[in-house]
């Protein structure tokens, strides 16, 4: 499928407002029997239509909401088990020409100090992150004409080139940058990025036009087709998202699902990940303090749960915008990836000068360190922290990954590989307290293995890691 690379030219708006409105209207005041029928279908792990997702979101019966949450928990446990992928965002630049009403990095915010990391600055940041134990990073960029695809590609090379004194190297670099043309995406693919992530922010065109007042981001269709151009360039893992608080929550969820279905129709595979950040206070943005459509905690739980039921094999990413207690609750609803120890300003990991609310892109709700988060999720909640990157290096991505995931692949390979990366972390980076609870969790996981052959292989590789070997996987 070839696309016109001219901004906004000849591109179809496959987000049909009339269709979404009709789905929302039909879903009003749903019959309890219909809700339960949809939940029964969800348990088959074949996903839901946008209309079926709307029915669950429009339900107002609290008891049925609890059944929605339980269905999401059952699906998540059945597919992902207790494995949880961790990553950190690394902000490369906050220079931006866009004028987005909700963002602290908007061009007219003169109170924000602008900063772009040099190669040396990137190396300093990555060294700190590697010394903490991170293996997976999401690089984040503002949109500025001087930062083209080749420049972004060089920053990726800079990240991969850093190796710390321990077992540190970054094994997976994902990218969140402004939409590029196909040639630009091809340059990123050539330097080995993992997932390309781009959020539409809102799928409601009038709201999109209202909150994006200047800059290239004003072009709704150019952004909407970013995933298609990335796929054409060979990047078969793409991540989408919406910023909740800008418009009606049900409309945004349906927009995400219609976007995912379009990708499946055109490229054979939907998004690798979906993100669902809530609008949080940001320096210089009045809107961020007064969201047009504030999303309650209960509504947010339903968003996560319904997305898990609707797209059961898609990774769901939860950021540190939410506080620690609520994040723990949301893990049960279907979240499979979380950021940890996040800082949202270029240079903030290596320089405490930049670790303060006034310079961040948004307020961080969970400010715990990586070690504290790992101790909590493994010791209190029995989740296996994972930094596994085996699939990406073995070519198990895109449509191939989804085919494997639907056959139980995630449980058979991803969980064991997660245990191996967790063992690395415990050996090289963990505090004594975290290592104690982590080793206990690994022991419980090994004891519970029914596949004796795989148990033997896994036990042997864990012993090899303890003896000093690294980067082992199945």
Write structural notes for this entry.
This protein is an alpha/beta fold and 474 residues long. The protein is 47% helix and 9% strand. The chain contains 20 helices and 11 strands. The chain has helices spanning 17-27, 32-42, 50-58, 62-80, 119-132, 149-160, 182-190, 205-211, 220-224, 226-232, 249-267, 286-289, 297-310, 324-333, 370-379, 390-393, 398-405, 409-428, 432-447, 452-466, and strands spanning 83-91, 99-100, 136-140, 172-176, 196-197, 212-214, 238-241, 273-275, 315-318, 337-339, 384-386. The strands form 2 sheets. It has an 8-stranded parallel barrel, surrounded by 5 helices. Strands 2-6 form a two-stranded antiparallel sheet. Strand 7, helix 11 (249-267) and strand 8 form a beta-alpha-beta unit. Helix 3 runs antiparallel to helix 11. The chain is globular and about 60 Å long. The model is unreliable at 1-5 (pLDDT under 50).
């Amino acid at each position: 499928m070839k696309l016109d690379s001219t901004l906004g030219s000849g591109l179809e708006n496959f987000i049909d407002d009339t269709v979404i409105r009709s789905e929302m209207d039909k879903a009003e005041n749903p019959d309890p029997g219909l809700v339960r029928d949809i939940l029964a279908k969800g348990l088959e792990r074949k996903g839901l239509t946008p209309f079926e997702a709307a029915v669950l979101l429009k339900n107002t019966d609290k008891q049925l909401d609890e059944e929605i949450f339980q269905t999401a928990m059952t699906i998540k446990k059945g597919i992902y088990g207790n494995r949880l992928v961790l990553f950190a965002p690394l902000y490369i630049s906050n220079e931006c020409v866009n004028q987005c009403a909700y963002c602290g990095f908007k061009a007219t915010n003169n109170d924000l100090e602008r900063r772009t990391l040099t190669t040396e600055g990137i190396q300093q940041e990555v060294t700190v992150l590697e010394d903490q134990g991170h293996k997976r990073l999401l690089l984040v960029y503002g949109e500025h004409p001087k930062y083209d695809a080749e420049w972004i590609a060089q920053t990726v090379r800079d990240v991969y080139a850093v190796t710390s004194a321990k077992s540190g190297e970054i094994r997976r670099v994902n990218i969140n940058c402004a939409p590029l043309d196909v040639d630009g995406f091809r340059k990123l693919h050539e330097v080995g990025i993992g997932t390309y992530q781009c959020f539409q922010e809102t799928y409601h065109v009038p709201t999109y036009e209202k909150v994006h007042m200047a800059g290239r981001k004003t072009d709704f269709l150019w952004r909407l087709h970013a995933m298609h151009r990335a796929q054409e360039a060979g990047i078969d893992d793409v991540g989408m998202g919406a910023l909740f608080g800008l418009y009606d929550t049900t409309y945004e969820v349906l927009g995400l699902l219609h976007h995912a279905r379009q990708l499946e129709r055109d490229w054979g595979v939907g998004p690798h990940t979906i993100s669902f950040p809530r609008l949080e206070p940001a320096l210089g943005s009045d809107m961020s303090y007064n969201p047009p459509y504030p999303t309650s905690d209960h509504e947010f739980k339903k968003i996560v749960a319904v997305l898990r039921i609707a797209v059961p094999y898609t990774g769901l990413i939860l950021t540190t915008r939410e506080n620690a207690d609520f994040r723990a609750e949301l893990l049960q609803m279907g979240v499979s990836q979380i950021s940890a120890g996040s800082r949202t300003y270029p240079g903030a990991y290596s320089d405490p000068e930049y670790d303060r609310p006034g310079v961040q892109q948004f307020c961080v709700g969970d400010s715990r360190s990586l070690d504290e988060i790992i101790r909590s999720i493994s010791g209190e909640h029995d989740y296996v922290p994972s930094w596994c990157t085996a699939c990406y290096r073995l070519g198990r991505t895109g449509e191939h990954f989804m085919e494997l995931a639907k056959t139980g692949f995630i449980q058979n390979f991803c969980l064991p590989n997660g245990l191996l990366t967790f063992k690395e972390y415990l050996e090289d980076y963990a505090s004594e307290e975290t290592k104690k609870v982590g080793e206990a969790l690994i022991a419980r996981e090994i004891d519970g293995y029914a596949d004796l052959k795989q148990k033997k292989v896994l036990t042997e590789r864990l012993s090899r890691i303890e003896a000093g070997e690294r980067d082992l996987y199945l």
